Predict the 3D structure of the following.
Amino acid sequence: MLSAWAGALVPVFSDTSVTGTGHLARPPGTGRLLAANHTSFFDPVLLLGTLHRLGLRPAVLATAGLWRVPLLGRALTREGHVPVHRGSRRAPDALRHAADALAAGRDVLIYPEGGLPGYRASHDRPPGRLKSGAVRLALSTGAPVIPLGHAGARRVSSGNRAKQLAGWATAPLRRPRVHVHIGPALRLDTADHPVTTLETALAEAWSTAVRALGEGAGGPAEPADPRGQRAAGATGPTEPGAAGSG
């Protein structure tokens, strides 16, 4: 239900496009770790909704505080999402539950940076240093990792609390452009330097998303993947071969 709601909200608050959906093809029953950069309070809606429209229903690792929100916490539990109790004895439980989901063939969405960036400007910055959790999970399970880079979500929600509320309120009128790029799968269990491998892949996916918006990422703007797919009611070319349910 949460995924469906997110899928309905994405086109209301943004004009979102997607490239790289062909990288989601996989054998049935294979659980994958979907590793995304984290920039704003909008990007969980963005990613959950975009993946829903591509036929995926991942379990999401999210801060445990969300489970204390009335109705939301119950829905998160019912749909198999995983609470992360940072800084407590229960913190390791998240990786264990995520490993169980992967073993059952379900995709798992994780934010390897571990939290939101501290700056308030609406522009995007490269992904920060990664925490060890995503890499440890990939190494312990052998699950393939797919980097998800997105840009533009801070145009919906960023800044102090007042600016964030104003951003959410005006986004349906502005419908800021947002782009999600899905990179090729990685096998961190065979990588010589798995943390560096994931950091590089996530940075490349983010750079591709930024360039798709025509803003450049350390260089001149480049055209988006011509096979890209518009998400959630936007117009544009459609890429064949999107994956089935996660």
In short: Helices lie at 2-13, 43-53, 72-78, 91-103, 133-141, 161-174, 194-212.
